[in-house]
């Protein structure tokens, strides 16, 4: 779509207006020629994906038209870079530095890594996040109908019902939950925090079985998984101050910008180009806003966490595993992110 827009300034003008974002997106999809066709295909892929979390209570990309418009314009400003060509060039440069006798082994390992590397976006593109978006659309419509019947106080409260309770409410059965019960559940869900959950339930987990018990191929995979899990979740002890937050130096570079604290779905829509995203953690859902931001800071995560990996792929500074960034850094504050030192300083 970006390539199509680069060849069609008139289509870009439809998007780059001061009018409502939803109208601009709609106008773009109705544009004649390749730009409109590409925009329709892009929106069909993007619109129903959950982008603010992992459940049907979270928002889809289509419900955040302002975010979609800013993301497209940011990608255009970046010149529509070809990440695939860039990756191929970088791989070739690394290969040139490998000793000749080891290049076949390098090629084999790279091919293996590429074959599984695409699985990182599996949830976003071909698995549950897209399907959840379709379910969300159905539940929103069901909630509207039940609310119109006066059985719930707000259409969004139907999300608090179980599947069986939804069917009861839709069918008019008197056995479903009351409006007050669903309203109470809604209040609890929207005010509770994942920080309230215990780190574990039950006794500490046992150590994995000795690698020597496993067949050679399974042993290799087991060791790889163990190593990856350690680097993904291991975080440093907190050494934060009122004006400095410290974590892991996940992606090198320095950047200064406005901090935007993203805790709940409505927070996504306030991100502007050049902002510093500060979140508890990130998921595949956050990929949609990556072209907008200048740096990334998270409370949780190790060097192979989603936040660390995606920041390196986009070439932006990142500090992860700070423990308290979302609590210490005020929304809208000016911050300097030093991804090489693992520090975030309030300017």
List the helices and strands and how they pair.
Layout: H1 2-6, H2 9-15, H3 21-29, H4 33-46, H5 65-77, H6 83-96, H7 103-117, H8 122-125, H9 128-148, H10 163-171, H11 179-191, H12 216-233, E1 244-246, E2 248-251, E3 254-262, E4 276-279, E5 295-298, H13 306-314, E6 318-320, H14 325-328, E7 334-338, E8 343-346
Parallel strand pairs: 3-4, 4-5, 5-6
Antiparallel strand pairs: 1-8, 2-6, 3-7, 7-8
Assign an overall shape: globular
Total DSSP helices: 14
CATH superfamily placement of the largest domain: Phosphohistidine domain
Q: What is the CATH topology classification name of the largest domain?
A: Glucose Oxidase, domain 1
What does the largest sheet look like? Answer: 8 strands, mixed
Distance between the termini: 38 Å
Tally of extended strands? 8
**Can you tell me the residue ranges where pLDDT is under 50 for at least 5 consecutive residues?**
none
| Strand line-up in the sheet with most strands | 1-8-7-3-4-5-6-2
Q: How many domain units?
A: 4
What is the name of the CATH architecture of the largest domain? 3-Layer(bba) Sandwich
Overall pLDDT, averaged? 89
Query: In percent terms, what proportion of residues is strand?
Result: 5-15%
**What is the CATH class designation of the largest domain?**
Alpha Beta
């Amino acid at each position: 779509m970006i390539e199509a827009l680069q060849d069609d300034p008139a289509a870009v003008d439809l998007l780059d207006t001061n009018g409502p974002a939803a109208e601009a997106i709609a106008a773009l999809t109705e544009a004649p020629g390749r730009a409109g066709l590409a925009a329709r295909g892009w929106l069909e892929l993007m619109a129903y994906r959950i982008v603010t979390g992992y459940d049907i209570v979270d928002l889809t990309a289509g419900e955040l038209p302002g975010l979609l418009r800013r993301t497209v314009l940011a990608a255009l400003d970046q010149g529509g870079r070809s990440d695939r060509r860039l990756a191929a060039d970088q791989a070739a440069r690394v290969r040139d530095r490998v000793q000749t006798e080891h290049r076949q082994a390098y090629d084999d390992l790279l091919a293996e890594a590429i074959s599984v590397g695409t699985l990182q976006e599996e949830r976003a593109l071909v698995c549950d996040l897209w399907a959840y978006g379709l379910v969300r659309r159905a539940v929103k419509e069901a909630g509207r109908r039940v609310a119109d019947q006066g059985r719930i106080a707000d259409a969004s409260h139907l999300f608090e019902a179980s599947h069986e309770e939804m069917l009861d409410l839709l069918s008019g059965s008197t056995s479903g939950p009351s409006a007050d019960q669903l309203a109470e559940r809604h209040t609890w869900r929207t005010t509770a925090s994942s920080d309230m959950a215990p780190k574990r339930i039950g006794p500490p987990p046992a150590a994995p079985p000795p690698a020597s018990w496993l067949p050679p191929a399974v042993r290799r995979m087991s060791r790889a998984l163990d190593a990856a899990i350690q680097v993904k979740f291991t975080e440093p002890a907190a050494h934060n101050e009122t004006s400095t937050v410290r974590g892991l130096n996940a992606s090198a570079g320095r950047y200064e910008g406005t901090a935007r604290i993203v805790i709940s779905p409505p927070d996504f829509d306030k991100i502007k180009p050049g902002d510093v995203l500060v979140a508890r953690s990130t998921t595949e859902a956050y990929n949609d806003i990556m072209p907008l931001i200048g740096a990334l800071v998270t409370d949780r995560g190790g060097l192979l966490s989603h936040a660390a990996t995606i920041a390196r792929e986009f070439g932006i500074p990142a500090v992860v595993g700070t423990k308290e960034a979302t609590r210490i850094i005020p929304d809208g504050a000016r911050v300097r992110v030093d991804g090489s030192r693992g520090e975030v300083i309030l300017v």
